[in-house]
Amino acid sequence: MAQITAALVKQLREMTDSPMMECKKALVEADGDIEKAVDVLRKMGVAKAVKRSGRDTNEGTIAAYVSEDGKTGALLELTCETDFVGTNPKFTGFAMDLAKVVAENDPADVVALKACAMGEGTVESELTEMIHVIGENMKVARFQRLSVENGVLANYVHHNGKLADIVTFSFNNAETADNDEFKSFAHDVAMQVAAAAPVAARREDVDSAVVEHEKSIYMAQAADSGKPEAIQEKIAVGKLEKFYKENVLTEQESIKESGTTINELAAKVSKSAGDDVKVVSFVRFSFGE
C-alpha cells in the first residue's frame, strides 16, 4: 500500500476541486496513483473540474506563422527567463522569424532547425547572438509545421502570446481563399480553437482511447442510478454525445454566433462561396504545456 501523504491529497484537491476527505479516499482506492484517483472521483461524481496543472516553466512566447498564400505555416514556442523579455517586440519578432524558418525548411527537430540558414548564418548563430544582445538565456521548446494543398491555413494568437493555433481548411475552388465571408469564418474558427480548447476537429478524429475512457466514466456514473442496464447504456451514450458537442470543434456552438455550430457555419459559407468548405484539423499550443 502506497503512503498517502498530505501533499498528495492537496495536489489531488487542487486538480479536481473535490473535498479533502473524498480525495484521501480516492487516493487510498487508487493506491496512491493520482491519475487513477481522478477517475475514482469522477466515477463517484465528486470531481467538479479536473484542472490541467501546468508545470512551472520559463517565460516566453508562442509564434504562429502562415505563408502569404496560406499553404504552409508553423507554430513555435520560444522560452526566455523573464516576462519582461517574453513580451519584448525584439524577442517576439525573433520567434516569428524562427516560425517562418520552420515553415520554409520543415526541419525534423530542434537540432535540425538550428542548422537551417537564417540571416547571415544559421538559426543557432542567430539565437546565440540574440542571447548576447538581450542578456537572457533562450531556447526553442517545440514547434510544428503544417501544410495544405486544396485549401488554406488560418492562425490566431491570443494577445499575450501565450496561446496560439493554426486551423486547416479544405475547399475545391482556389477563389474561395479570397472570399470575404470565408476569411471571416476562418478567423472566427481559429479564435474558437483558442477559446474553447477542443480535443479534435471532427468526431472521427477523437482518440479512441479517450472515447472509451469517457464512456467508462459515464457507465460507472449510470450504474449508480439503479436503473436497468439498457437504460444505463442510453444514459452513457447521451453523456458521450454531450462530450462530443462540447469538445469536438465542428460540433461546438460558435462563440460568435450563439445557437449555431461550426459545421452549420461552414455550410453557410459553402453555400455563399459556391464551394465545399470544411474544417479539417488544427494544432493548438498553450505556453508551457
Automatic annotation (TrEMBL):
Superkingdom, natural source: Bacteria
Keyword Manganese appears in the UniProt entry: no
Cellular compartments annotated: Cytoplasm
One term of GO molecular function: translation elongation factor activity
Region (Involved in Mg(2+) ion dislocation from EF-Tu): 82-85
Main location: cytoplasm
A Pfam family it matches: EF_TS
Residue span, Translation elongation factor EFTs/EF1B dimerisation domain: 73-289
Keyword vocabulary terms for this entry: Cytoplasm, Elongation factor, Protein biosynthesis
GO cellular component terms, semicolon-separated: cytoplasm
Matches recorded under Gene3D superfamilies: 1.10.286.20, DNA helicase RuvA subunit, C-terminal domain, Elongation factor Ts, dimerisation domain
Family that this chain belongs to: Belongs to the EF-Ts family.
HAMAP family: EF_Ts (MF_00050)
Name used for this protein in its record: Elongation factor Ts
